[in-house]
Write a sequence for this structure.
């Protein structure tokens, strides 16, 4: 018998996967993922989808283990699917049928009895704020509405593990905010893994995170712990566009962004580098880029 208490942690140990073309998408990945929102941050090609798809029982790993409470994730696939909600990166073709009919259909597939289904579907549509639009075809939805619909379908059946793969890519800032609010309401008593290449997603939402690149874990822990590691080591300077290359060759530049058309660079240095640099507060972007550069 699986109790809620047993489901509170996902433990991943030494997970590895090499595709037939030789790409090592996961290399000895070990993570402890507690209840709440967990950010899996990495650039494109880092191995995030491979990890998400493996946990969602959609593909096999070569070696390693994953356990969710009592469930052996890599072997007891049916048991995982009973407690899993998954929002894939590519949702495939959006159906031309209405959101309410589509959710009803998906709820049937998930085994929700006819007598409860109407209530479950209505509650979900209200929860993701699509009630007014329930009779419109999902194919006519905006990007933000589609993602909220995606969350509604992932929530069918009261999942304990929710996996959302790159959910905010392509959303405008307003849609992204609405989506953040929705996700933050969900992640209280369940494990929500949010895979993303967008640092802000993690900054806004996640109490724990991992940074991965090249299939390896570069950092795992609380975002604040990562920021603490960087404290006093980030220096910034506003420079001319023509100086960018020169600074890149002289310093460990971890990021460069334009502010009002002028580049502001961040460098990593234990000591005050002088030369007009000033101390800057470390942000999660600094953590992300410095971990990736150091790997
Ligand atoms: P992310 O989700 O972080 O962008 P992926 O897990 O999709 O990363 O990909 C990790 C690496 O594995 C990339 O180099 C990608 O090209 C490669 N890859 C992903 N899927 C396959 C596949 N089915 N066959 C071969 N290589 C793949």
């Amino acid at each position: 018998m699986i109790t809620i208490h047993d489901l509170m942690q996902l433990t991943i140990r030494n997970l590895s996967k090499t595709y037939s073309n030789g790409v090592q998408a996961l290399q000895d990945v070990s993570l402890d993922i507690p209840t709440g929102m967990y950010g899996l941050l990495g650039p494109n090609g880092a191995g995030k989808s491979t990890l998400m798809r493996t946990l969602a029982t959609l593909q096999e790993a070569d070696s390693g283990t994953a356990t969710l409470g009592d469930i052996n994730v890599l072997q007891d696939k049916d048991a995982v699917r009973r407690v899993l909600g998954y929002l894939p990166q590519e949702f495939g073709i959006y159906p031309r049928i209405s959101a309410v009919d589509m959710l009803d259909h998906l709820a049937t597939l998930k085994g929700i009895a006819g007598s409860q289904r109407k209530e479950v579907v209505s509650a979900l549509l209200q929860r993701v704020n699509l009630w007014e639009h329930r009779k419109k075809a999902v194919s006519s939805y905006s990007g933000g509405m589609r993602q909220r619909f995606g969350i509604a379908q992932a929530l069918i059946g009261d999942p304990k593990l929710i996996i959302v793969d790159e959910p905010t890519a392509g959303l405008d800032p307003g849609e992204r905010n609405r989506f953040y609010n929705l996700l933050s309401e969900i992640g209280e008593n369940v494990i929500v893994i949010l895979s993303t290449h967008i640092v802000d997603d993690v900054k806004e939402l996640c109490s724990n995170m991992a940074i991965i690149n090249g299939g390896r874990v570069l950092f795992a822990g609380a975002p604040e712990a990562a920021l603490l590691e960087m404290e006093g080591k980030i220096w910034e300077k506003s420079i001319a566009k023509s100086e960018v290359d020169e600074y890149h060759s002289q310093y460990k530049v971890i990021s460069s962004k334009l502010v009002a058309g002028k580049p502001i660079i961040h460098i990593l240095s234990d000591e005050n580098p002088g030369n007009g640099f000033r101390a800057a507060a470390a942000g999660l972007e600094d953590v992300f880029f410095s971990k990736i550069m150091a790997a």
